[in-house]
Amino acid sequence: MAKKEYSFYPGCSSERKASASNYMVSIESMCKTLDIKLNEIPDWNCCAASIGYAQGGELPRHTMNARNIALSEKNVGNQDIVATCAACWLGAKESQERINHDKTLFGDINNILGEIGLKYEGKQNIRHMVEVLIEDFGYDELKKPVKKPLEGIKIAGYVGCQTNRPFGVHGESFENPKYLDKLTETMGAEAVEKYDQKVTCCGGALAFSEPEKAYVQINKIIESAYDFGAEMIVTPCPVCQMNVEVYQDMINKKFNKKYKIPVVYYSQLMAVAYGASAKEAGLDGNVVRATRLEEIAAK
Amino acid sequence: MTTQAVEKYHNDFLKEVEKNVEMGHMVKMCMQCGVCSGSCPLGPAWEHPPQEIFMMIRAGKRDEVLTSDSMWMCTSCYNCIVRCPRELPITHIMHGLANYAHRLGIAPKQNPTRRFAQMFWKNITSTGRVNELKLSVGLYFMDGIASGIKKGLEMLPVGLGLMKTKRLDPMGMVSGHGCKGRADIQKMIKKATEIEDKRKGYAA
């Protein structure tokens, strides 16, 4: 398999001692197996996330993403930009689309970036890591390196919002995307086909500002996973992962439940199936431990 | 119909929204089907769901729209956008209205999402990257020390769980983490804000 290289936008949550640091650990392991080289955008900054709209408006918010795109162009302009975080991917992609289709905005951006010695062209594709996996590799290629099939684990594929809408993954529907289930099955686990909350919103940033409202959403997402017999939830998004995992005790108190379900990243499933240790798969970063995966990793 | 005739029936607020609000020119495309309101995960929490907001804009209800906390219920899930049969960028219009009201200083002062968003922007533009500990602590202590301690204690197990798994930096309050080019970032944001302020009429 030929080595593949991408310009890489890891994003704030992927940093050491940040909320998705274990996602990053598992991505590194997965990429090592698949022979993917990720060229980190030098000195990348925050994408401003969705909540950035309130103070950041339009131009300041797009400027944040334009700096990253310009830095990527300067570094490895011939490579696609790949993001692992749903919000980073969406933020960068949305800004690029706006800037490229609006001459005034394109002019403003270059005027502003010019002052810090950067130039924006916006010609690279901006892709989420799951697009790279599905489109540049494909399920058959992804299956080849599987050493330890995740046999007998029933997993609910929680796709969430921002890798699914408004752009989504090519060829998938907004209401019932299948790629996460297919990835799960490719790794030898069982996907919960009827899981009916796979594209329900977890509350996003409102888990911070309006926790009571977000907990109602998270409760639905977890309850349905249990109802369909899942013993684990898998997701492609750091916000989904955190919201669905870390507030389980709060939700247990509020809704009188006994939830304790691991919420893992697709890359953690892949790392374990590809033979990584629990540490290499970032499983020590899960607040609700994924013991079934840890057992397989230890074999 | 001539352009002049169309103009005659435009009320001032619709014109203002079209001119100053992100994607505001699309508001008049709404056909009042209500799919957006029915698709919103926080639907019941909106005093005026998106469909209603669009009609209120056309009816010239400026104060009712801009002082409402409705738009601040948006979780940015984009469900309304992908379902709208007229392809209105509803999420962006709601963001735009909230931002516009906030920048005019008439958005609801105590709305927690507005206040959180303000803290978030300050957090990311000071060093270029999110400092998660500062953001969480700032949020809990938003209403003073007493309520901050209460909220902090309530959320302590969550924070400890994240620290134990190395997903939250206990030294985050004092660490120098962030972009090397933070001065550049501040410079570009200052300039971008100046341009936008001038164009949308926020400039003093």
List the helices and strands and how they pair.
The complex is a heterodimer of chains A (299) and B (204).
Chain A: E1 4-9, H1 21-34, E2 36-40, H2 53-56, H3 59-76, E3 81-83, H4 86-100, H5 103-114, E4 126-128, H6 129-137, H7 139-143, E5 154-157, H8 179-186, E6 190-191, H9 206-209, H10 211-227, E7 232-235, H11 238-246, H12 248-255, E8 263-265, H13 266-273, H14 291-298
Parallel strand pairs in A: 1-2, 1-3, 3-4, 5-6, 5-7, 7-8
Chain B: H1 3-9, H2 12-20, H3 35-39, H4 50-58, H5 62-66, H6 79-83, H7 90-104, H8 112-127, H9 132-140, H10 145-164, H11 182-200
Helix pairs in contact in B: 8-9
Q: How would you explain this protein's 3D organization?
A:
- The complex is a heterodimer of chains A (299) and B (204).
- By secondary structure, chain A is α/β, with parallel strands linked by helices.
- Chain A has helices spanning 21-34, 53-56, 59-76, 86-100, 103-114, 129-137, 139-143, 179-186, 206-209, 211-227, 238-246, 248-255, 266-273, 291-298; strands spanning 4-9, 36-40, 81-83, 126-128, 154-157, 190-191, 232-235, 263-265.
- In chain A, strand 1 (4-9), helix 1 (21-34) and strand 2 form a beta-alpha-beta unit.
- The radius of gyration of chain A is 19 Å and the shape is globular.
- Chain B is mainly α and 204 residues long.
- Chain B is built from 11 helices and no strands.
- In chain B, helix 8 runs antiparallel to helix 9.
- Chain B is globular, with a radius of gyration of 20 Å.
- The model of chain B has no long low-confidence stretch (mean pLDDT 93).
- The chains are: A alpha/beta (299), B mainly alpha (204).
- At the A-B interface, helix 2, helix 3, helix 5, helix 9 and helix 10 of A face helix 6, helix 7, helix 8, helix 9 and helix 10 of B.
